[in-house]
Write a structure and sequence with these properties.
Elements (H helix, E strand, L loop, with lengths): L14 H13 L5 H13 L4 H5 L7 H15 L4 H5 L1 E4 L2 E4 L12 H9 L8 E5 L5 H9 L4 E6 L2 H13 L5 E5 L11 E6 L19 H4 L7 H9 L4 E10 L5 H10 L2 E8 L5 E8 L12
Parallel strand pairs: 3-4, 3-6, 4-5, 6-7
Antiparallel strand pairs: 1-2, 7-9, 8-9
Helix pairs in contact: 1-2, 1-4, 2-4, 6-7
The site of glutamine has 8 residues, from loops.
Length: 299
């Protein structure tokens, strides 16, 4: 006999108690424990969440109960909801994600907003997205600006397979994908605007423990987290039209370092923008024109 108060989550429960206990189980590791529990139960039962409100006293059948328990344990171990459900909403698109791609973050919508401000509604620009992952940024821009042509690169074929599937699923015709390191696969081409959400977390950053289910290559970039941004600052100009803009997402503590790196490599009009939480997260820079004098390196 289990005494009241010590009842553990198990497969022989009614919907209401299963949800209440799963919520408790998930509380320590999730800011949205109740919602997570409901989404996981709707998956285990293959019903809409509204079903639970009408049927809180229905008993779970043991198979569904076991499926629910295993989903709750995956979530409790820190796996992102998006990997369990296989999808994530970004810019009002339902995107497929997998452990080969970073889970798109709401902050990254700032990068999309800033890019769209630089692309007129009727513009037919060529846009490059470096390190596209699930394709979130590239697809958001391509859909908002149908006259533009968007090219997105990634080093990971597995990530690109997901991005291509998202483009197909969302029926986005004006996006193309290319596999390779940063600008390598598009050498010789010219773009009017380049965007990137590169890896920018330092190798020793403690928050990485919380992100262990996501690809390290999409998160980490050397000792100070700036290796990828340095590479992009050095090479993006090769495929950017004169006066073209580069937009980079970065960590909230990297504002000065990113600006210094961009200035050191000859970019001009470097400007940083805050996310909706007031933190400096997106830096925009302009490619110096051929006749401008780049600042001396090391100045
Ligand atoms: N913003 C992410 C995080 O710290 C990192 C994403 C990235 O490195 N591009 O959770």
């Amino acid at each position: 006999m289990v005494r009241e108060g010590l009842v553990a989550l198990n497969e022989f429960m009614d919907i209401g108690s299963a949800l209440a206990m799963a919520t408790e189980r998930l509380r320590a590791g999730s800011d949205s424990a109740r919602l997570d529990a409901e989404l996981l139960l709707s998956r285990a039962l293959d019903v809409n969440r509204s079903y639970f409100f009408a049927h809180p006293e229905d008993m779970l059948d043991p198979d569904a109960g076991r499926r629910f328990l295993s989903l709750v344990e995956r979530r409790a171990s820190g796996e992102p909801m998006s990997y369990i459900t296989g999808e994530r909403e970004f810019w009002s698109m339902n995107l497929m994600v997998s452990p080969a791609t970073l889970v798109p973050r709401p902050e990254t919508e700032l990068l999309v907003e800033r890019a769209l401000m630089l692309i007129g509604r009727k513009a037919a620009m060529r846009i490059l997205d470096l390190g596209t992952g699930s394709g979130a940024i590239a697809l958001a821009i391509a859909r908002e600006r149908p006259l533009c042509e968007v090219v997105a690169t990634d080093l990971s074929e597995d990530a690109l397979a997901i991005a291509r599937q998202n483009a197909r699923q969302l029926d986005v015709p004006n996006v193309a994908f290319a596999c390779g390191d940063w600008v390598d696969p598009v050498k010789g081409q010219r773009f009017d605007l380049i965007v990137s959400n590169p890896p920018y977390v330092a190798e020793a950053d403690e928050t990485l423990a919380l992100l262990r289910h996501e690809p390290r290559s999409a998160l980490c970039a050397g000792n100070d987290g700036l290796d990828a941004i340095r590479r992009i600052a050095q090479t993006a100009g090769e495929v950017l039209a004169d006066d073209g803009r580069l937009l980079l997402e970065h960590g909230s503590m990297q504002r000065e370092a990113v600006a210094a790196e961009l200035q050191r490599t000859g970019w001009s009009q470097v400007e940083c923008f805050n996310d909706h939480g007031g933190l400096p997260r997106v830096t925009v820079a302009r490619k110096a024109t051929a006749d401008a004098h780049p600042p001396a390196i090391g100045r």
